[in-house]
Amino acid sequence: MQTTSIAASPGQASGDALPAAVSEVRWWVRLRRAVAFRNVSALYLLAFMVVVFALWVPGTFLTAGTWRSLLSDQALTCLVAVGLVVPTAAGVIDLAIGAQVGLGAVLVARLLVGHVPIPVAIVLSLLAGAAVGAFSWLMITRARIPSFIATLAVSSLLAALTAWVSGSQQIVDLPAGFGKLGTGQLFGITYPVYIMLAVAVLLWYVLEHTPAGRRVYATGGNPQAAALVGVRTSRVILFALLTSGAVAGLAGLLLTSQLSTGDPTVGPGYLLPVIAAVFLGSTQFRGGRFNIWGTVVAAYTLAVGVKGLQLAGLPIWIPDLFNGTALLAAVGLAAWRRAPATRRIGPGRLLPPRPAAR
Q1: What domain count does the chain have?
Q2: For residue 25, what pLDDT is reported?
Q3: Which of 5, 52, 64, 129 is the most buried (most CB within 10 A)?
């Protein structure tokens, strides 16, 4: 019996090899882009700072206690930044976020010393934060005030409201059980870290995997075009500000739980590091788009820098200098990530256009 073998033609062999070669090239290109400095600059900066501070202050910086403290202490800043991603992605510059944290901190304390049950006080504080977001929405979409100016004015109003609620004094004698919310631990990590991660996962899913998230990014990218294709931009901005307001209120009540006192001065200090984290986070992973996990990485990168400088015994004003420099660098990187034609518009392009009301 004669056996006949059929050999593949050279054209067929090369045709089979071509898709594999193209796939390999694409994989290499994707990997190179993923690890490029422009895409993960915060991770390179984090690695650099870890090396510097490990050599500078190895006796304190490299201890497990320092890193556990860093993880827990930065959780609230990261939580506020994660909440701020939503309105920023929708094109709203919210300068009232720090004041919202301060209001949440004193409001929950005032309710608790007034013998309001802890669960009710928590819910009311969250609703108050959302109400502030709704008020900002009215100023932006109905009064047609640019978000930069509107939220700056709201911040001043909240500062006055916080002083009135607290009487410009710390509110003490809070229920002992309330403190466990901010200081309780699971596997050596405080509860606020887990709360921050839960909120981050939820908002990441909404922004990246739901129609609501796509509408948020469409509104922030071009509100006029989004309105023309049927996106109710006013409702999107309302959703974004309600979300950030509630998250800020949550951060404020967790802060009061940690401190065991309602301090009317704590809120404004969150504004600069939070905005720096959001803008630096926009340069990570998503090609210049505001995103949740880039913001988380940026927040902890900035925290490592501040903690290292503190451990090195530098003056108390150094953290402010570091955060301010980081914000300038973050905005510069965000502009650099844009297309050349967009960069020619100038730095003012980073401020979103006024949203169309619908």
Answers
A1: 1
A2: 60
A3: 129
Residue where the block lists tokens 């294709």? 229
CA 181 to chain centre: 22
Quote the CA–CA distance of 107 and 124 in Å, as a whole number.
9
Residues facing 186 on adjacent strands: 189
User: Token digits for 199?
Assistant: 């909120």
∠ CA(68), CA(69), CA(73), 5° rounding? 125
| Opening angle at CA 228, ends 224 and 234, nearest 5 | 60
Contacts of 35-40 with C-beta under 8 Å, sequence gap 24+, read 38/283, 38/333, 38/336, 38/337, 39/284, 39/285, 39/287, 40/284, 40/285
**Which pLDDT value is given to residue 354?**
47
- Residue 244 sits in a domain whose CATH number is 1.10.3470
Token readout for 299 is 């927040």
Q: Flag whether 82 is in a domain.
A: yes
252 falls within a domain: yes
> Where in the sequence is the domain holding 86, given as residue range(s)?
39-350
Kindly state the helix (H) or strand (E) to which residue 74 belongs, with its residue range: none
290 located within any domain: yes
Q: Which amino acid, 127?
A: L
CB-CB contact of 160 with 146 (8 Å): no
pLDDT given for residue 17 in this prediction: 56
Task: State the Cα–Cα distance between residues 312 and 291, nearest whole angstrom.
Answer: 32
51 is a domain residue:
yes
Nearest residue to 131 (alpha-carbon basis) of 248, 220, 233: 248
Beta-bridged to residue 262, according to DSSP, are 171
- The reported pTM is 0.83
Please report the DSSP string for 7-60 in residue order.
PPPHHHHHHHHHHHHHHHHHHHHHHHHHTSHHHHHHHHHHHHHHHHHHHHSHHH
- Please list the rounded mean pLDDT of every run of 10 residues in the chain (358 residues): 49 54 62 67 84 87 86 92 95 92 94 92 95 95 91 95 92 88 88 95 95 93 88 93 96 93 90 89 80 92 88 81 80 62 38 46
Residue 218 is which amino acid? A
Phi, psi of 189 (to 5 degrees): -115, 135
In the prediction, which pLDDT does 21 show? 55
